[in-house]
Design brief:
The chain is an alpha/beta fold and 290 residues long. The chain folds into two domains: 86 residues, 3-Layer(aba) Sandwich (Rossmann fold); 134 residues, NAD(P)-binding Rossmann-like Domain (Rossmann fold, 3-Layer(aba) Sandwich), CATH 3.40.50.720. 40% of the residues lie in helices and 17% in strands. It contains ten helices and eleven strands. Helix 1 packs parallel to helix 10. It is globular, with a radius of gyration of 19 Å. The relative contact order is 0.16. The protein binds NADPH dihydro-nicotinamide-adenine-dinucleotide phosphate.
């Protein structure tokens, strides 16, 4: 069994980006610039945005954090989005989700200029990705593809079962896994909450991608010997013993499943760290296309 080490791989990607940025600066070019819009002060969102900003600083990007009050109107937020779209010194930006309930998330995401949509959530990018055209690929699926590619995991002709069909993970990864090219060419089945006999499907899979958000859902009896296991799930499970009061759990019962797997991503330290690295990669791509 080999661990698909997202921490190590994401550090390698960060170093590669850092070198590219340093070479850009040596040539007198402006470094990539990423902005993050955070509405309100939700704890988890603050943590995510904070680590995105720190990662930007590490690789030499410019970064801007735009913090807005939780009672901002939809109209005012749209005005900020228009300003960001028109800012020539900005290559990409993200709007941290979730947004307060009085704001229509879809309306906000649609207002983002697809050329600056480094999260890859805009329908233009999603459509381009599906058509195998140049596009910003959502960071989490992009990170999974990089892990598979860099560890030379064989996906060609394999049966891949994706559990989850969300727009940010399950659906895009199912499209990418079936596309032509490295880490693709798989035969993909997408499962969701209405799927019958899920165990039968996962037991027949060469590759299982778990993205549902139910801790330790995939158990050893649900996978075949030698399967590749990708665990996207991140759930905070209360734990009084832990100083933080919770533990981070994935969707896979790691200890027992790892014994049968050929490759497996741990949680934490698997897909999670790859997500931020790929956001940086998308921002670099945005800068290079300007
Ligand atoms: P969503 O809640 O949007 O989607 C969950 C999906 O799982 C849905 O398609 C749902 O089906 C399906 N599902 C729910 N219960 C079952 C079940 N019993 N059997 C089969 N399928 C089921 O979640 P996300 O895709 O946003 O996130 C999934 C997990 O990944 C979460 O733990 C999240 O925290 C984590 N995550 C991690 C990231 C990272 O960087 N590592 C990034 C993004 C997410 P249906 O469509 O029918 O409701």
């Amino acid at each position: 069994m080999e661990i698909l080490d997202g921490k190590k791989t994401s550090n390698e990607i960060r170093e590669e980006i850092k070198e590219t940025v340093s070479a850009m600066k040596d040539l007198g070019k402006r470094p990539p610039h990423l902005a993050a819009v955070l509405v309100g002060s939700d704890g988890a969102s603050l943590t995510y945005v904070g680590s995105k900003v720190r990662s930007c600083e590490y690789v030499g990007f410019d970064s801007t954090l735009i913090r807005l009050e939780s009672n901002i109107s939809e109209e005012e937020l749209l005005k900020h989005i228009q300003d960001l779209n028109q800012d020539d010194n900005l290559d990409g930006y993200i709007v941290q989700l979730p947004l307060p309930k009085h704001i229509n998330e879809e309306k906000i995401l649609l207002a983002i200029d697809p050329k600056k949509d480094v999260d890859g959530f805009h329908p233009t990018n999603f459509g381009r990705m599906s058509l195998e055209l140049n596009a910003f690929i959502p960071a989490t699926p992009f990170g999974i593809m990089q892990l598979l590619e860099r560890y030379k995991v064989s996906t060609n002709g394999k049966h891949c079962v994706v559990v989850g069909r969300s727009h940010i993970v399950g659906r895009p990864i199912s499209i990418l896994m079936s596309q032509k090219g490295p880490a693709g060419n798989a035969t993909v089945t997408v499962a969701h909450s209405q799927t019958e006999n899920l165990e039968k499907l996962t037991r027949s899979a060469d590759i299982v991608i778990m993205a549902l958000g139910i801790p330790e859902y995939l158990t050893a009896d649900m996978v075949k010997e030698g399967a590749v296991i990708i665990d996207v799930g991140i759930t905070r499970v209360p734990d009084k013993e832990h100083p933080k009061g919770y533990l981070i759990k994935g969707d896979v019962a790691y200890e027992e499943v790892a014994k049968k797997a050929s490759f497996i991503t741990p949680v934490p330290g698997g897909v999670g760290p790859m997500t931020i690295a790929m956001l940086l990669q998308n921002t670099l791509l945005a800068r290079q296309s300007n």
